[in-house]
UniProtKB/TrEMBL annotation:
The keyword Disulfide bond is assigned to this record: no
Family: Belongs to the TonB-dependent receptor family.
Localization per record: Cell outer membrane
Biased composition (Basic and acidic residues): 241-254
GO CC term, one of those recorded: cell outer membrane
Region (Disordered): 219-260
Listed name of the protein: TonB-dependent receptor
TonB-dependent receptor-like beta-barrel domain location: 290-733
Keyword check for Secreted: no
Secretion signal span: 1-26
Alphabetic keyword roster: Cell outer membrane, Membrane, Receptor, Signal, TonB box
Residue ranges the record marks as coiled coil: none
Start and end residues of each TonB-dependent receptor plug domain: 58-160
């Protein structure tokens, strides 16, 4: 559905039009040329005088590289927002948010996320890192590595996303950024930044500071039924159960800093870099359930209100990384030593209060719950490698890595039923709030499986040979990964001593890049990769009613999933910098982790069971990816740039109910857009349109189909001289709602018989977002 613009939306666009009309001199800026040793000036970053393109990598691996100029004009807030414009990346996030990137549409745990080439810990149980934790202003470039190499860890079944932050050789001078974002509920959030780079002593220094206000005023609407259309064509009238209206507002502030100091000597290079990001966020939900599809009058028994729920969650997350690298060239080649430390802390306090009304006129029931979450995940790593020259432009590289990961989780809860404090049926949901009825909570107790520690130590070695000829670039290698796990659960009377698990994997890989002509080339890669088990699966705790009415028993002896993958691609150069590419990929996944029935009766009695994860499944993933990035100089329009990509994604897996795709994989995703530069008046404008296909999830007790509306973004840019730029950007202009259909069942037998516990239709939207952003170079 296309949303009509409100008055405040029109005001934002009017300001954008005014910027276009303002006079300014034409600008001619030099392109960024890091490859030939030049250093980018701050004016090059602030005043973009040309259209941004996807870069053409000369390495053997199939890598798509996008400089920040490719994204910057649409002013993405986070790394996740920037990735919405690259091929094969989907999200199953809330509207106007982009957190867990799903490369090739697979769940986030199948994608390896690197920051400056190094893994970083996160709070998610599937080992993924949410990319909305990294402000886009810190990014120098984004690399999509479609296949794997022996020089990197093999946790990349879908591929690798590497976020390279700006370093000391990326900037000469500084710039400041200031602006604001205006949301559909008339909330205004600030955005501020400062970056400086220059020579200091024998090397170069870069520092950056960023402050970002975050806001998401979501609205949800749900209709619930006792059955579904597949069983009852008239279910909308015959099977209606209840309706839920929810306001879900998320407010936050992100504070970030990054720094880099580098010395490039004749034989020795040194670099130390790091970043820090803090997210201070508050999420507030208010939900009303009614027994009528449209009515909003007071509580039962005289009205239609069934329940009133208030849920608040305070989130404080901090993640930082320090990395030092020393490289020395000597008679036997080049030796590199890299030492890194990264940590992620997640502290949350959540409270929930609910009033339930009834038809009999009795006093309502009041319930309250309180949870605290404290996750600390830290990693220390050391890498050492050496490159030998073998002659004929061929090198042998050998190396190893040691990593020590320590993850500690503490989830505590207090669950209290309290007497309803006397408002009775005079309760007014428009005036009163369940949170106002709170009584003191009892003692906090550990949630089942909620307090545990996981220590993971890795020792890897690798060797590879790489080389070049006039037309062929190639690489072949093998990586040997060993892992030792110590897992301890501290909850419940049945808490068990520390359990150990060890596994090892050989991961070979090879890539070639062959130049058919100066403009045409083909790429081909084959690699074996793996995916490590989710943390919540390897904890030995027994979780009651975790899978509908069924229980989940963790399995510390789980091994990683493995996959053989193939990528074959073709690229053609268009004009000076344009590229068109086509790639096909295939993954054959073995030892897939699936839930299996132990045969033991569950805690809810007959008809329920205890399930445990096992390495018992197989799957395959395949698709076709097309991307284009070029100006129209061959048509006489050198200042008009077009870009776009489309990916067709598919997979097959067999679970407890038969064949399906991998959970959450969209069947397609595309992004198309254009940028028009008008150098004579220092103006540019453009638009991008994105859409991803439906995704389907099936687990024991629940099936979900998720769809998103299209996303339209428009920008208008005005340049003033060589140092100042203002942009107006509108995003989510089509009010692209998220829609979900839920099939819910009590147990596996009901799921097979299509005996529904509940059928739910849910929609979520947040409205357009407008921003004005100014940059000044100095």
């Amino acid at each position: 559905m296309i949303r009509t613009f409100s008055l405040h939306s029109a005001a934002a666009l009017a300001l954008a039009a005014a910027l276009v009309a303002a006079p300014a001199a034409a600008q001619d800026t030099a392109p960024i040329q890091r490859e030939d040793g030049t250093i980018t000036t701050s004016q090059d970053i602030v005043v973009l005088g040309s259209v941004g393109y996807r870069n053409r990598s000369d390495e053997a691996e199939p890598v798509l590289s996008y400089d920040s100029e490719f994204f910057q004009r649409f002013e993405p807030l986070t790394a996740g927002d920037a990735l919405k414009r690259v091929p094969s990346v989907t999200f199953l996030s809330d509207v106007i948010e982009s957190d867990g990137a799903r490369l090739r549409g697979l769940p986030p745990g199948y994608t390896q996320i690197l920051i400056n080439g190094e893994r970083v810990p996160g709070n998610a149980s599937d080992r993924s890192f949410f990319l909305d934790r990294i402000p886009a202003e810190l990014i120098d470039r984004v690399e999509i590595v479609r296949s794997s190499s022996a020089r990197r860890t093999g946790d990349a079944v879908a591929g690798t996303i590497n976020i390279e932050l700006r370093d000391a050789f990326e900037l000469d001078g500084g710039y400041i950024r200031a602006g604001g974002l205006y949301y559909d509920d008339k909330e205004l959030e600030p955005s501020l930044g400062l970056v400086y780079g220059g020579a200091v002593g024998p090397g170069r220094l870069l520092v950056g500071l960023n402050f970002q206000g975050r806001h998401n005023p979501k609205k949800k609407f749900s209709l619930r039924y006792d059955d579904s259309p597949e069983n009852d064509p008239d279910f909308a009238t015959n099977e209606f159960n209840n309706r839920e209206d929810q306001a879900d507002t998320r407010d936050g502030k992100d504070y970030s800093a990054n720094g880099s100091y580098e010395i490039d000597g004749e034989t020795t290079d040194f670099r130390i870099s790091g970043f820090y990001v803090r997210t201070d966020r508050f999420e507030s939900e208010r939900s009303f359930e009614y027994n009528d599809p449209t009515a909003i009058n007071g509580p039962l028994p005289t009205g239609n209100l069934i329940s009133d729920n208030a849920n608040d969650n305070g989130i404080d997350q901090r993640n930082y990384s320090l990395d030092a690298k020393l490289a020395h060239r000597w008679s036997l080649g080049e030796t590199s030593l890299r030492v890194g430390f990264a940590r992620f802390d997640d502290e949350q306090t959540e409270s929930e209060y609910q009033i339930e009304f009834n038809d009999e006129g009795d006093d309502p029931e009041f319930e309250q719950e309180f949870f605290t979450t404290d996750i600390a995940d830290k990693e220390f790593s050391v890498k050492l490698d050496h490159e030998f020259e073998l002659g004929g432009d061929t090198q042998l590289v050998i190396g190893g890595m040691y990593q020590d990961k320590d993850r500690r989780t503490a989830i505590l809860e207090a669950d209290d039923d309290a007497a309803f404090p006397g408002l009775e049926n005079s309760y007014d949901q428009f005036v009163d709030n369940p949170a106002d009825l709170a009584v003191p909570f009892g003692d906090l107790d550990p949630a089942d499986g909620g307090v545990n520690s996981i220590e993971e130590r890795r020792l890897d070695g690798f060797a590879l040979v790489q080389g070049k000829t006039a037309r062929l670039t190639w690489e072949a290698g093998i990586r040997y990964e060993t892992t030792r796990l110590d897992i301890t659960d501290f909850t419940g009377a049945a808490a068990v001593p520390t359990q150990e698990n060890d596994y090892e994997k050989w991961l070979p890989s090879a890539s070639i890049k062959f130049e058919l002509t100066p403009r045409d080339r083909i790429t081909a890669s084959v690699a074996r990769t793996n995916r490590r088990p989710d943390f919540n699966f390897i904890s030995p705790a027994l979780l009651e009613e975790e899978l509908a009415d069924n229980d989940l028993q963790g399995n510390p002896q789980l091994g990683p999933e493995t996959a053989w993958g193939v990528d074959v691609g073709y690229e053609r150069r268009i004009g000076a910098r344009g590229i068109v590419g086509l790639n096909v990929f295939y993954r054959d996944v073995k030892n897939l982790i699936e839930l299996t029935n132990t045969g033991e009766e569950g805690s809810e009695g007959p008809g329920t069971f205890v399930f445990t994860p096992q390495n018992v499944g197989d799957g395959k993933v395949y698709g076709v990816e097309f991307d284009l990035s070029t100006d129209l100089g061959f048509l006489g329009l050198p200042d008009t740039g077009i870009f776009g990509n489309v990916s067709w994604l598919d997979s097959e897996i067999t679970d407890f109910a038969g064949k399906r795709r991998f959970n959450g994989q969209s069947d397609y995703v595309y992004n198309i857009g254009f940028i028009q530069d008008i150098p004579s008046v220092g103006v540019a404008f453009g638009a991008t349109h994105r859409k991803q296909g439906a995704a389907y999830d099936r687990v024991i007790g629940e099936e979900v189909r998720t769809t998103y509306g299209a996303d339209l973004e428009i920008f208008v840019e005005k340049r003033f001289g060589k140092n100042f730029t203002i942009r107006a950007v509108g995003s989510n202009l089509l009010n692209g709602a998220k829609s979900e259909t839920f099939n819910k069942f009590d147990n596996l037998e009901d799921q097979a018989a299509r005996d529904f516990d509940e059928y739910e239709l849910e929609s979520e939207n947040a409205g357009p977002v407008f921003q004005i952003m100014a940059r000044y170079a100095f």
